[in-house]
Design a protein that fits this description.
The chain is α/β, with parallel strands linked by helices and 217 residues long. It has 9 helices and 8 strands. It binds pyridoxal-5'-phosphate. It comes from Palleronia salina.
């Protein structure tokens, strides 16, 4: 696959779902990919990327930003409280807001630095103990709490359990977003972004289908 192929498939999925062309943002997930592969995608003009770890992102993105200008960086991995400030300085969007303490920390730092990234609340739709995210039943209250802190929550994000049909999880998240008046829906990865677009995704997070398999060491 290439970036162009993925964009073509996204455009087709938008049309098939009766969605406006360009209504889905492609986040290229560049975690643990070699710099050359990331640069190749930057050279094609793509500017939206997702990273899992603050420290890894700090190592590569300031340099790319100097060379390629304005970037649209999304944190899509768990955020430890002690990395919050660094994350808020680097990322334009944090997709993994998942607990009250983190919400309060972000609100306090936003006051200090005078800006706040866009935020997605991560929901643990599969109720998996090992996975981050607020429980489905706690989502409405948590979104309300974030709003009472004046946090710019723009949507919901989930990572469905592996090896299950993701569609019911996508629909559940879409329902939760709608009833909370949230437009953003970050769902869909390499294996299921078309199904996610059919379910209303506004952001898809695609890694290996663009960059190739992740090399882990
Ligand atoms: C790694 C990752 C992705 C991308 O996964 P692919 O299957 O490589 O597309 C998407 N979302 C999150 C949260 C991830 O950690």
């Amino acid at each position: 696959m290439s970036l162009t192929d993925i964009k073509t498939r996204i455009a087709k999925a938008e049309t098939d779902a009766g969605r406006d062309p360009g209504s889905v943002r492609l986040i290229a997930v560049s975690k643990v990919q070699p710099d050359e592969r990331v640069e190749a995608v930057l050279e094609q003009g793509h500017r939206s990327f997702g990273e899992n770890r603050v420290q890894e992102a700090q190592g590569k993105w300031p340099g790319f930003a100097e060379r390629y200008g304005d970037l649209d960086l999304h944190l899509i991995g768990p955020l430890q409280s002690n990395k919050t400030r660094a994350a808020m300085e680097l990322f334009g969007t944090i997709q993994t807001l998942d607990r009250p303490k983190l919400a309060r920390t972000i609100a306090r730092i936003a006051d200090e630095i005078g800006h706040c990234p866009d935020l997605f609340v991560q929901v643990n739709t599969g109720d998996e103990t090992q996975k981050a995210g607020v429980a489905v039943d706690d989502t409405d209250a948590f979104v309300a709490e974030c709003r009472s802190l004046s946090l710019p929550v723009i949507g919901l994000m989930c990572i469905p359990p592996i090896d299950t049909d993701p569609a019911p999880h996508f629909r559940l998240l879409a329902d939760l977003a709608a009833r909370n008046g949230l437009d953003g829906l970050s769902i869909g990865m390499s294996g299921d972004f078309e199904a996610a677009i059919a379910a209303g995704a506004t952001h898809v997070r695609v890694g290996s289908a663009i960059f190739g398999a992740r090399v882990t060491g």
